[in-house]
Each structure stands twice: as C-alpha cells, then as structure tokens.
Amino acid sequence: MIDDTPLIDMQRLAEMRDDFGAEILPELHALFVSEAAVLVERIGAEDGADLVPLVHTLKGSAQTMGMARLVLVCKQAETALHEGRKTDPAMIAHLVEQSADAFAGECGCQIRNSDKIGSAVMSR
C-alpha cells in the first residue's frame, strides 16, 4: 500500500551520506527539485503514451534520491499508462513536493521552491 511506504528510504539516505558526504546532499536536493519541476510540468501537459518516458525518468531520479513512496507511485503510473489507463498528474506533483520536503528535512537542506514544483499542474 502506498501510504505504508515511507516518503524517504532512510537506508538509501545513509548510503548517500556515506558515498557522497552529507555536505553534497543540499546540492543533490536542489538538482532533484530543478529536474522534477520540469518533469512535473511536462507530465501535466502530456497525456497517454507520451507520459511513459517522463514518469520513468522521474522514477529514476526518485530512486536515486531514496524517495520510496514516489518510486512506488511512478511504478504504478507506468503500469497504468502501459495498460492504457490514465494517471493523476496533480497527485504525482503533490507527492514530488512532499518527497522533496521530506528529503530536505532529513538532511537539513534549505527547502528551495519545492512547494512550487507542482503549481503549474495543480492549477489546471
């Protein structure tokens, strides 16, 4: 179940700290927010099969960042799209924001506009 999945995989976050150093996490967060904002905007503007590569890219970025719940939702969205069903761009945008904020909170990053990630999608 989606709600049972943590926003952040703490083991992955610990691996990132060990592999890259805690001081690089704010920069990785900023890069994720920047990339995710573009993807979320495009996800809100596209439909059908055109969404699959966008959702797949978002899933990969979320996996790298340890955003477990977002990864699960992206996997489910990919499956739905492959089966010809629709997905909810506003829900994905909201979860991207939540995930970015949770990551920032866990690593002490300054939140940089993550609350604006889905504004273009959610206002449609």
TrEMBL record:
**InterPro entries, from UniProt?**
HPT_dom_sf, Sig_transdc_His_kin_Hpt_dom
Per UniProt, the keywords (alphabetical) are:
Phosphoprotein, Two-component regulatory system
Q: Which SUPFAM superfamilies did the record assign?
A: Histidine-containing phosphotransfer domain, HPT domain
Q: Which GO terms describe its molecular function?
A: protein kinase activity
Q: For this chain's UniProt record, which GO biological process terms are given?
A: phosphorelay signal transduction system
In terms of Pfam families, this protein maps to: Hpt
Where does the record place a coiled coil? none
Which superkingdom, per the lineage?
Bacteria
- In this protein, which residues make up the domain named HPt? 17-110
Protein's name in the database? Hpt domain protein
PTM sites of type Phosphohistidine:
56
Native species of this protein? Palleronia marisminoris
